[in-house]
Design a protein that fits this description.
Elements (H helix, E strand, L loop, with lengths): L4 E4 L9 H16 L3 E4 L11 H14 L22 H13 L3 E4 L3 H13 L15 H9 L5 E4 L6 E6 L3 E6 L7 E3 L7 H11 L4 E5 L6 H10 L6 E5 L19 H7 L3 H12 L11 H7 L14 H14 L2 H11 L3 H11 L9 H5 L11 H5 L5 H17 L6 H14 L4 H13 L7 H8 L1 H15 L4 H14 L16
Parallel strand pairs: 1-2, 8-9
Antiparallel strand pairs: 3-4, 4-7, 5-6
Helix pairs in contact: 1-10, 6-7, 8-20, 9-11, 16-17, 16-18, 16-20, 17-18, 17-19, 18-20
Bound molecules: glutamic acid.
Length: 509
């Protein structure tokens, strides 16, 4: 029997997600435990949301964790390219082949027509789904409309009776009614594939033997199995991992827990502790020990020991485990880790440029700049109340800043942040000083400090987002209605630059 090949296939949108690390870890551990290969594939079919910067962050985050792959977009391999945007021709080829064998079909329905169809279905109390209307078109009609250049997609034919049986390595046979499965678009009107087609084609061509992925994909698996059958390919083994959960058991979300892998790096967690913790989320050692290394995990790994049931991501437990790992380090290694983390000349020079003019003694470094390393001094609502703008204006500023931080993670520079917050001040009809005041408190823990946008650039997007969220918990977030109004306002401001709002580019002191 050949050795297994597993993969992690993240979509490069937004911050590198803890869920990607979790899925990568189990794929990695399984492949390594069986002497197999682990592949990184980038699923960037959604051109609008994908970015090269996000791909680079995924690569850096997985490397930081030490989950190294044998084949991937950055190192190549025999069955590449490993980036879906470079594989478009194949998907088109297979989609056409499926049409030729009558397992897929052209559909010319316009978005308006589909919306009306769904509306009617809802009015009849039915679950909206594609009704197969294009299957009624004659071959000549299809040929004529294609020749006339009418926009069209290719959809998968799905049986309307019976059920699909998915064999999941953890759950056994799972039966999913075909009537719950939509006639999925495989190739979009712009000729690009959807996730479902690209994913199946790539898993086949990359000879993936085991698809270990989050349970949110279980309901898509019938479509995937149908594609394997239609293309006469052998499907891989499927294993759907339980999703990471917030303490209230909802799906892990950044509203409740930081989800960016780099948040954990920047906050000072050790990669081995984070991996250990993620492994414990879905797996337990035969002897139930809590602390184990990646090598120990691989040595004892068995997919069948993955526990179902929503594992709750608990920061208190992670802190405890990180403490265990940290105290094991030799003093010299601990020093090295601190330098790798933030205690390095780069951060120090960037910080000193701003701190030096405010220092009277060398020892002022810590009280003035400590917030660049650890959490800022704790503040409560009274600290915000002491500022000039009313609390609800401050809420608006902090919410606005949080949106900017999230959207600018790949362009996280002081000027960009400064311009964005200057535009916010204009839109919210606040003076620069009043607009920046709550930011100072949220980010640095004091009403005045070194330039807050420079501080933000030094802290990076994940720590800034955490501090802004904490501030919004302290003084309360704007209501849903206000948030909507703010969003409209932000849309109007667009990308107004500091120059447009008449600022000289200097921050209020
Ligand atoms: N691109 C999908 C994701 O972002 C991959 C799902 C799969 O592993 O099939 O999670």
């Amino acid at each position: 029997m050949s050795t297994p090949r597993t993969r992690v296939a993240p979509s490069p949108t937004g911050a590198p997600h803890l869920g990607t690390a979790y899925v990568a870890l189990f794929n990695y551990a399984y492949a390594r435990s069986m002497g197999g290969s682990f592949v990184l594939r980038i699923e960037d079919t959604d051109q609008q949301r994908s970015s090269v910067a996000a791909e680079q962050e995924i690569i850096a985050a997985l490397r930081w964790l030490g989950l190294n792959w044998d084949e991937g977009p950055d190192i190549g391999g025999d069955v590449g390219p490993y980036r879906q945007s470079e594989r478009s021709e194949r998907y088109r080829h297979y989609a056409e082949q499926l049409v030729a064998s009558e397992q897929a079909f052209y559909c010319f329905a316009t978005p308006q027509e589909l919306a009306a169809m769904r509306e009617e279905q809802r009015a009849r109390g039915e679950t909206p789904r594609y009704d197969g209307r294009a299957l009624q078109l004659s071959a000549t009609e299809v040929a004529r409309r294609r020749a006339a250049g009418e926009p069209h997609v290719i959809r998968l034919k799905v049986p309307d009776v019976g059920a699909c049986e998915v064999n999941d390595l953890l759950r056994g046979a799972v039966s999913i009614d075909w009537r719950q499965v939509d006639m999925q678009v495989l190739l979009k009107a712009d000729g690009r594939p959807t996730y479902h087609l690209a994913n199946v084609v790539d898993d086949h061509e990359m000879r993936i033997s085991h698809v270990v992925r989050g349970e949110e994909w279980l309901s898509s698996t019938p479509k995937h199995l149908l594609l394997y059958q239609a293309l006469a390919w052998e499907p891989p083994q499927y294993c759907h991992l339980p999703l990471l959960r917030n303490p209230d058991h909802s799906k892990l979300s950044k509203r409740r827990n930081p989800t960016s892998i780099f948040y954990y790096r920047d906050k000072g967690y050790l990669p081995e502790a984070l991996l250990n913790y993620l492994a414990r989320m879905g797996w337990s050692m035969p002897d139930e020990r809590e602390r184990f290394s990646l090598d120990e995990l691989i040595e004892h790994f068995e997919l069948s020991r993955v526990v179902l049931g929503g594992p709750v991501f608990d920061l208190v437990k992670l802190d405890w485990l990180n403490g265990q790992w940290l105290r094991e380090l030799s003093p010299l290694e601990l020093q090295r880790r601190l330098v790798d983390w933030r205690l390095n000349p780069e951060l120090l020079s960037a910080a000193l440029e701003h701190l030096q003019p405010r220092m009277e003694r060398l020892s002022d470094l810590v009280p003035l700049g400590g917030f660049l390393l650890g959490a800022p001094p704790e503040v409560d609502e009274a600290h915000y109340r002491a500022l000039k703008p009313p609390l609800e204006r401050q809420q608006a500023v902090l919410q606005w800043a949080l949106w900017e931080v999230e959207e600018r993670r790949f362009d996280f520079e002081r000027d960009a942040l400064f311009n964005a917050m200057t535009a916010a001040a204009g839109a919210l009809e606040l003076s620069l000083r009043d607009c920046f005041a709550p930011l100072f408190v949220a980010i640095t823990g004091r009403p005045s400090s070194i330039s807050v946008v420079d501080a933000m650039a030094m802290l990076g997007p994940d720590l800034c987002a955490e501090r802004l969220r904490t501030a919004l918990t302290t003084i309360g977030a704007p209501s849903k209605k206000t948030r909507r109004q703010l969003e409209v306002l932000r849309g109007q401001v667009g990308k107004a630059s500091a120059a447009d709002v008449g600022s000289d580019g200097r921050e209020p002191e």
